[in-house]
């Protein structure tokens, strides 16, 4: 068969299904002679059927090989190109993160914080969480995000370090298309001194950043890993917070995370016994907002955590490795200062932890049930998306694109006034019970990107709030 064709979420994969339960998602149920007999018996049928489809439809993909969802189509495509070269989901996440430091400098950068959740559905071992937000930087050559990505490459990567970074070097040198979100962030933060006055559709060329990325790409593995040996790597691994919501397992980081707070909030949520029919009712939104606001007040979340920017990368690969990487800075453009090496510095010694968390959801009853990875920036967003995915049984696109409320630092409720679809007047009247008048959350809005699987069918979606498009092949 010909080489798999790269696809975007706005150009869907060709329709068509074949039964895979005997050789794919459920293959761990068989062993020994029974498995061999079934495998040989079905192999001929599968190959014949696939060939017929290939002849009839052209370049047909029986099973999608992998997908990457991020806040930039260019960066999503960088991720899938890495998967096509034989890289795994971690390689794709690393390459995409470097690309986002070029394409979305208002959200993330080489000095950004980061935390990643890694899970393999074949082994079904507990997910691994690596948090390099507060890793000690041992060398000026490797700022925070680069240090974290180097650690991931050392412990989980397959492809060469240089291979993962080179696409970002090219992008920074030739220029990245300026998004509406970047322009909004520059205006809101009065950050014209960093990049000048930009307009959506322009190309932003970053020669110094390209040179810096090229230097990082050319660091040999021995030298790269020698920098890592100077930090306590055991401090990077975080324990898992596992909770149950309806018939699903929810995995988030535990230590130094809002994961335990999210678990408690979902337990309260579950006791209200909402049904699928309730999701569309105004009083449902009211109760969810009430739970979120109650938690912000009860736990003094804002005293312990800060809500900075978020850039979320979701990846699934052909080996059923699932990754959610979230990076971000203390605020848009971090410290607001650019180093002589071309990247924006983040604010250090903040004294509080970040609210952003990667999330994995798996069906607790069926091995081939829904599996979903995404990342959020706060409890309120997490509750809304999880309710939509699980109670509403909606797909990733519907759940991510649904209107969202936010909880302000003083307990007020905010809405995204310009995002479509938006809350109707009846919902707003209910929300006014919690707060006199919901405030308007300014653009650009926080995004959350998702990749999900049901059986062996893979889909993905990049939040329109972030302006990205997912890529798969």
Characterize the structure shown.
InterPro entries: GGT_peptidase, GGT_ssub_C, Ntn_hydrolases_N. It holds the Pfam family G_glu_transpept. One of its GO terms (biological process) is glutathione catabolic process. One of its GO terms (molecular function) is glutathione hydrolase activity. It is a single chain. The chain has 473 residues and is an alpha+beta fold. It folds into 2 domains: 39 residues, no CATH class; 406 residues, 4-Layer Sandwich (Glutamine Phosphoribosylpyrophosphate, subunit 1, domain 1). It has 15 helices and 21 strands. The strands form 5 sheets. An 8-stranded antiparallel β-sheet has the order 1-21-2-11-12-3-4-7. A 6-stranded antiparallel β-sheet has the order 8-9-14-15-19-20. Strands 16-17-18 form a 3-stranded mixed β-sheet, covered by helices on one side. Helix 3 packs parallel to helix 5.
């Amino acid at each position: 068969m010909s080489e798999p064709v790269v696809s975007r979420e706005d150009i869907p994969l060709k329709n068509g299904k074949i039964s895979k339960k005997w050789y794919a998602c459920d293959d761990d149920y068989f062993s020994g002679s029974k498995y061999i007999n079934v495998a040989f018996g079905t192999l001929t049928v599968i190959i014949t059927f696939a060939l017929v489809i290939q002849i009839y439809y052209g370049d047909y993909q029986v099973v999608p090989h992998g997908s990457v969802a991020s806040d930039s189509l260019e960066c999503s495509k960088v991720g899938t190109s890495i998967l096509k070269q034989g890289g795994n989901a971690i390689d794709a996440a690393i390459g995409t993160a470097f690309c986002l430091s070029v394409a979305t400098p208002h959200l993330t950068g080489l000095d950004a914080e980061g935390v990643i959740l890694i899970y393999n559905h074949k082994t079904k071992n507990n997910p691994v969480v690596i948090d390099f937000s507060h890793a000690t930087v041992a060398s000026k050559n490797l700022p925070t995000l680069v240090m974290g990505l180097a650690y991931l490459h050392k412990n989980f990567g397959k492809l060469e370090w240089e291979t993962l970074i080179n696409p970002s070097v090219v992008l920074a040198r030739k220029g990245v298309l300026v998004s509406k979100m970047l322009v909004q962030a520059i205006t809101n933060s009065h950050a014209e001194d960093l990049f000048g006055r930009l307009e959506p559709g322009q190309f932003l060329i970053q020669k110094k950043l390209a040179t810096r990325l090229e230097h990082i790409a050319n660091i040999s593995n021995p030298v790269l890993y020698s920098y890592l040996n100077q930090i306590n790597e055991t401090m990077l691994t975080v324990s898992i917070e596992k909770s149950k919501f309806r018939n699903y397992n929810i995995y988030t980081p535990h230590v130094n995370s809002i994961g335990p707070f999210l678990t408690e909030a979902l337990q309260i949520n579950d006791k209200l016994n909402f049904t699928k029919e309730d999701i569309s009712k105004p009083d449902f939104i009211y109760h969810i907002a009430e739970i979120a606001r109650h938690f912000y007040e009860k736990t003094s979340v804002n005293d312990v955590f800060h809500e900075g920017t978020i850039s979320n990368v979701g990846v699934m690969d052909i080996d059923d490795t699932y990754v959610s990487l979230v990076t971000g800075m203390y605020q848009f453009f971090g410290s607001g200062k650019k180093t002589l090496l071309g990247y924006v510095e983040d604010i250090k010694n903040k004294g509080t932890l970040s609210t952003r968390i990667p999330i994995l959801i798996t069906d607790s009853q069926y091995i081939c049930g829904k599996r979903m990875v995404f990342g959020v920036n706060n409890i309120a967003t997490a509750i809304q998306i999880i309710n939509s995915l699980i109670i509403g049984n909606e797909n990733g696109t519907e759940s991510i694109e649904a209107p969202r409320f936010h909880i302000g630092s003083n307990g007020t409720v905010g809405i995204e006034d310009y995002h479509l679809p938006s809350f109707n007047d009846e919902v707003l009247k209910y929300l006014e019970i919690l707060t006199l008048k919901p405030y308007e959350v300014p653009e650009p809005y926080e995004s959350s990107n998702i990749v999900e699987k049901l059986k062996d069918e893979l889909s993905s979606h990049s939040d329109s709030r972030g302006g990205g498009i997912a890529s798969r092949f």
